[in-house]
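Researcher: I'm preparing a figure for a lab meeting and need a structural model of a single chain. I don't have an experimental structure, so a prediction will have to do for now. The sequence is pasted below. Please return the structure as tokens so I can convert it later.
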Amino acid sequence: MNRRRAYEDDGDFYGERNKKRRRVSENQEMEERLETLILRVGENSTSSLESNLEGLVSVLESDLGNFRSKILRILSDCPIKMPEKCTIYSTMVGLMNAKNYNFGGEFVEYMVKTFKDSLKQCQWDAARYALRFLADLVNCHVISTNSLLQLLDSMVDAANEDNVPQVRRDWYVFAVLSTLPWVGRELYEKKESALENLLVRIEVFLNKRTKKHHNALRVWSVDAPHPQEEYLDCLWAQIRKLRQDNWTEKHIPRPYLAFDSVLCEALQHNIPVIHPPPHQDSFEYPMPWVVYRMFDYTDCPPGPILPGAHSIERFLIEEHLHSIIEMHRWERKDCAIHLLMLPYKDKIPLEYCIVEVIFAELFHMPTPRYLEICYGSILIELCKQQPSKMPQVLAQATEILFMRIDSMNTSCFDRFVNWFSYHLSNFQFRWSWDDWDSCLLLENEHPRPKFIQEVLLKCLRFSYHDRFKEMMPEGYAKLIPKPPVPHYKYSMEGAVSTRWE
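Model: Understood. Here is the structure written out token by token.
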């Protein structure tokens, strides 16, 4: 009797445990489904983005009771890990706030915590994207303009601290300036005087700022034909141009405009007072850089016009391309596909923008962000993905670099040699060498013939000497490396005998 009861009790136990397992697996499947829906919103779909957002918001609202923390976490992670979809997620949060004010307040608290944690952990890109998202929530009537301006003012206050590294002050100003394209129009319409005061404070900071690092980070020693601007100076010029255009730009998608009648009736939340964490000796900040320019609109064929160097569209396009490289650098095919699928690609000469950004990464001083071969492999994949345009643009870029090589930084010269030799080795070493005949009249140590000599020396490691003798025009014979023949000193005439006497 006791044994039978024990058996029955065990059966109930295992049955209950199986129910719990099924419940856990069902919850896990539901969480994964919600995460997939949120991550993929805005991607290729047969229906419009507006209808997708409305449907997804309805699904999330019905699941808030069971998956509230999960939804908060995913919605706060997405605009940081996928900053190119920032406005899509801000629209989603705005629609949810319009339906559920309490959820909107919880999300703002969660996002503020994410922003503060990123600052404390020196995750500077994550902090900048979080600040951008908070600013875009102003456009969706989730956050009040006054509280955002208070936050931006505190960021500028941090830039005016004494006895802290300049790189720290620079980052805080850069974070504010890079956020203004998203929210500048809204602040201009509602808080114009406060916005102007903020810009005046930034201008005062920039005028007092030292730029001793500028010359050390230049790719070329001359400013012709494109000035080599320090990154904050360039962004400030772009923001001033945006202000002249009444804060109107043509690159940022703004899906929340379609829901303005719904969003404008929602109650807004205030960002709590945020004091940036004080500087510590262990903190590492992003280093300054020089904005790389290779092309202007005259270099591009008839068609879409390349935005000017001081247009905010140029900054937004370049930032987007840099983020794609950072996200997909481990897989060159995916990286090339995402680069070529850039939104608004029909409105810009995309291939020229991509090539310019990749060379900006390769020539970044003092060292590139990633291995040099990373950029070479991405360029090769781009040529394979788009053989009708990319090889011609890359050949034009190579020609420009070669003609300006006289004033190129020595480190960039070496990287140019390494990239070009690697690229040639993947395309059967074919190149129109006759176009560079003029360099043969120069001294061998001049940068142009020296470049060709170094390239051939590197290429020799990928091929064999006789091939270059046959491939190169006769005039280049003096630049071809000597044949790599063995040198056995004991077989030479007059060699000392090694036999014991």
